[in-house]
Design a protein that fits this description.
- The chain is of the alpha+beta class.
- The protein folds into three domains: 2-16 and 395-469, Immunoglobulin-like (Sandwich), CATH 2.60.40.3080; 28-226, Endonuclease Chain A (Endonuclease, Chain A), CATH 3.30.870.10; 229-374, Endonuclease, Chain A, CATH 3.30.870.
- Helix content is 25%, strand content 26%.
- It has twelve helices and 22 strands.
- The chain has helices at 2-11, 53-62, 88-97, 164-168, 180-194, 237-246, 262-273, 285-289, 291-301, 341-345, 357-374, 388-394; strands at 28-32, 68-73, 101-106, 123-126, 139-143, 154-158, 173-178, 219-222, 225-232, 251-256, 277-283, 305-308, 317-321, 331-335, 349-354, 402-404, 411-415, 422-427, 432-437, 442-446, 453-459, 463-469.
- The strands form four sheets. The protein has an eight-stranded mixed sheet, sandwiched between helices.
- α6 (237-246) runs parallel beside α7.
- The two termini are 28 Å apart.
- 50% of the residues are buried.
Length: 470
C-alpha cells in the first residue's frame, strides 16, 4: 500500500509530452465566433471572428481549393443576418467552375435550404433517414487532399452548422489544419459514406453510421505534436473522451452543447474531487435531455458548473485539459461530437484530440470568456508553466528514454540510453499491472490485454513516462 501511495504522489508531477517546440501557427489555426479573453494568453492570442467572419473565413479557405473539395456538413441554410452573410454556395460554385472536383454530403433529415443555391452539376448525397440511423452530424471540409504539393492539403472541422445564427450568435469554434496525412484519412471516411472515390456517389456502396468500419488510423504528428482522430460510431469515441478527462492533473474545462453520458459526468466530478480545478459549461438543452447528468454536475461542481440559458445556443463541443501545466500533456478535444449516446453509437461524427500546450491555451482563452459572460461563478486563473521542482524530485535520470507509439494498441517499444533492468506499468490510480526485467536498451512490451486508458511506465525505478492504450 505504501508503494502505491508514493507512486500516486508522483503521477501529478511527471514530465510527459512536454511541448518545448514553438506552436506551428501555419499548420493549425483556431477561430471563435464569440469574444475571447486574451489577458490569459500564454503568448499566442486566440482569434475572435465577429459579425459573421467565421463564414468569411470558410469562404476564404474554399477559395484556395485547386483540385478537390469535399464537404460533409450536417446542415446548410442560406439565409441572411444584418445583410452581411457570406455566401458559401457562391464560393463552392466558383470552385466548381474553375475545375475543382466538388462533392457534398449532408444530413438527409435536415432542411439544408442552402443546397438549392449550388450548381446543378455538383454531386450531393444525403444520409439515410431510416430509424436504424441517427444523423450525419459531421461539419468537416477537405481541400486538395491528394495534391502533389502536401502543403495544399487542409482539413477543417468544428462545431458550427452553417446558418446565420450559428455564425453570428451561437457559441462555436472551428479549426483549420494543414496536413496531408490527416486529410487522407478524412477523405477515406468521406469515401466510405460517399460509396465511391470518384466525383459521383454510389448509394448502393455507401456506409453511414453503424454500418461504417474503423479505418484503423488514429494518430498523427502535426507540427511536432500528437493529434488523435476518431469517427463515430466506428471508433468507440466516448472511450477516448473518458481517457482524455481522466488524464487531467491540474485543470480541466468542458464546454459542450449536450451531455447525456453519465459516465463522462462522473469522470469530470472525479477529477474535481481528486484536486483538479474543474469547470463545465453546458447548454440548457442538457438538463432538458438528461436530468441525471445535470444533477451529477450541479451537485459535484457547484458554482463551477454553469448552464447557458440565453436566447441562442451554447453549441461548442470542446474540452481543454491541463492548459496551465505544460508538463502534464495539455490537450484540446474538439469537433462535431456531442457527449451523448446517439453521437457515440448512431451518428456520423468526428473529434480531434490535439496534444499541444499552445492550442490548449488558445481554447482556454475562449473558455474563460465563455464562462464569465454566461454568468459562471468565481473564476480562478491558475499560474501556468511547468512544475520543475517536483520534476527534479521524481525524474532523477530521464536520459533519452522514449516510449512509442503513443497512443499504442498492441505493443509498446521502449528505448533507453542504458540497459533497462526493470519496467513497471501502472494505471492512473496507481495499480501495478505489469512488471518485467530486461537487459537491453531497446525492447518491446505487449500491452494487448490491457484495457484502453492512460498508463504510466516506470523504467529502472526512476524514469517515468505516460502513454495511452487505445
Amino acid at each position: 500500500m505504501k508503494k502505491h501511495s508514493s507512486f500516486f504522489a508522483l503521477i501529478f508531477s511527471l514530465l510527459v509530452f512536454c511541448s518545448s517546440t514553438a506552436f506551428a501557427q501555419s499548420r493549425i489555426k483556431a477561430y471563435f465566433n464569440n469574444p475571447v479573453n486574451n489577458t490569459v494568453s500564454s503568448g499566442v492570442n486566440a482569434v475572435y471572428l465577429p459579425s459573421g467572419h467565421m463564414a468569411d473565413t470558410i469562404v476564404a479557405y474554399i477559395n484556395r481549393a485547386k483540385y478537390t473539395l469535399d464537404i460533409a456538413q450536417y446542415d446548410y441554410n442560406q439565409d441572411s443576418y444584418d445583410g452581411a452573410y457570406a455566401n458559401i454556395a457562391t464560393a463552392v460554385n466558383n470552385a466548381y467552375s474553375r475545375g475543382v472536383t466538388v462533392r457534398w454530403i449532408y444530413d438527409g433529415s435536415s432542411s439544408n435550404t442552402g443546397l438549392t443555391a449550388l450548381n446543378s452539376g455538383i454531386h450531393k448525397l444525403g444520409s439515410p433517414t431510416s430509424s436504424a440511423y441517427g444523423i450525419m452530424h459531421n461539419k468537416f471540409i477537405i481541400i486538395d487532399a491528394y495534391s502533389t504539393n502536401p502543403a495544399d492539403a487542409i482539413v477543417s472541422t468544428g462545431s458550427e452548422d452553417w446558418s446565420s445564427e450559428m455564425f453570428y450568435k451561437d457559441y462555436n469554434n472551428i479549426l483549420f489544419i494543414q496536413d496531408s496525412a490527416l486529410a487522407h484519412v478524412y477523405t477515406d471516411e468521406f469515401n466510405m459514406m460517399w460509396g465511391s472515390t470518384t466525383a459521383v456517389p454510389n448509394s448502393s456502396l455507401s456506409k453511414f453510421g453503424p454500418y461504417k468500419t474503423d479505418l484503423g488510423l488514429h494518430t498523427f504528428t502535426i507540427g511536432g505534436h500528437t493529434v488523435e482522430l476518431y469517427f463515430s460510431p466506428s471508433d468507440n469515441t466516448d472511450t477516448h473522451v473518458g481517457t482524455s478527462i481522466l488524464s487531467a492533473n491540474k485543470d480541466l474545462y468542458v464546454g459542450v452543447y449536450d451531455m447525456t453520458r453519465t459516465g463522462d459526468a462522473n469522470d469530470i466530478v472525479a477529477r474535481k474531487n481528486s484536486g483538479v480545478y474543474t469547470l463545465a459549461i453546458v447548454d440548457q438543452y442538457t438538463p432538458a435531455t438528461s436530468t441525471s447528468v445535470n444533477s451529477i454536475l450541479s451537485t459535484g461542481l457547484g458554482s463551477n458548473y454553469v448552464v447557458y440559458s440565453g436566447s441562442y445556443i451554447y453549441h461548442n463541443k470542446m474540452m481543454i485539459v491541463d492548459p496551465s501545466d505544460t508538463c502534464s500533456d495539455p490537450q484540446v478535444l474538439m469537433g462535431s461530437y456531442n457527449w451523448t449516446t446517439s453521437a457515440n453509437s448512431y451518428n456520423d461524427e468526428n473529434i480531434l484530440i490535439i496534444h499541444n500546450d499552445t492550442l490548449a491555451n488558445i481554447y482556454y482563452q475562449s473558455f474563460v470568456a465563455n464562462f464569465t459572460s454566461i454568468g459562471g461563478g468565481s473564476f480562478t486563473t491558475l499560474a501556468g508553466g511547468c512544475n520543475t521542482s517536483l520534476m527534479a524530485k521524481t525524474i532523477t535520470n530521464p536520459g533519452s528514454t522514449t516510449v512509442y507509439p503513443n497512443p499504442a494498441s498492441n505493443e509498446l517499444t521502449i528505448t533507453a540510453d542504458q540497459p533497462v533492468n526493470t519496467v513497471e506499468i501502472f494505471t492512473i490510480s496507481g495499480q501495478e499491472v505489469f512488471t518485467a526485467g530486461y537487459q537491453e536498451p531497446v525492447f518491446t512490451v505487449s500491452i494487448e490485454n490491457l484495457p484502453s486508458g492512460m498508463y504510466f511506465a516506470r523504467i529502472n525505478s526512476q524514469t517515468m513516462v505516460r502513454f495511452v492504450k487505445q
